[in-house]
Amino acid sequence: MFKSLSIICLAALPLLAACASVPEERIAVPRAQATEKQRIAYATVALRNVSLPTYAAGEAIFTADETGRLRDNGGLLWADDPSRAMTLELARHLTGITGARVASEPWPFLDPAAAEVEIRVEDMLARADGTFQFSGQYFVATEEGRDRARLFDLTTPIAGERTPADLADARARLVRDLALDVVQRGLK
What we know:
Elements: H1 2-20, E1 25-27, E2 44-47, H2 54-57, E3 60-64, E4 70-78, H3 82-98, E5 101-104, E6 115-126, E7 131-142, E8 148-157, H4 164-186
Parallel strand pairs: 1-4, 2-5, 2-6
Antiparallel strand pairs: 3-4, 6-7, 7-8
Helix pairs in contact: 3-4
């Protein structure tokens, strides 16, 4: 019995060592600057929580290799819940670009918003070719009945050595670019 227990413990040591050898590192997304200012047709905009694909909704940062397979970057995590963080980033950008009163759900004001935006992300990937891709669809519902549905497919280069900070910077630029797209094609 002691011999078989010793063999099991010895076999488990490499697994335990592998788990312990990957230190957890959290990556904060910097704030990308949006200098554009544009008027929109709505004074108030409600932003629903951004819907992300399963691999992008968790804390782990996945990248696509040359074959298109998604790889977990062991121990590399986003600093905040991606859906929450992107929703707040988008609300900040939409407010800054338009000057409108923008808030994420649940809507915190007594009067209903004049427009409501919902974003569903299909792909959010750092690719092996050195680009970060962000694609999906957004919807704008308004009290006036001018509802819209728009597809988006945005790509930006990952600058530098493709470090975690470079990935976070690329993601920040794409969220800003998505906010500009929503303003220009969805809220005018």
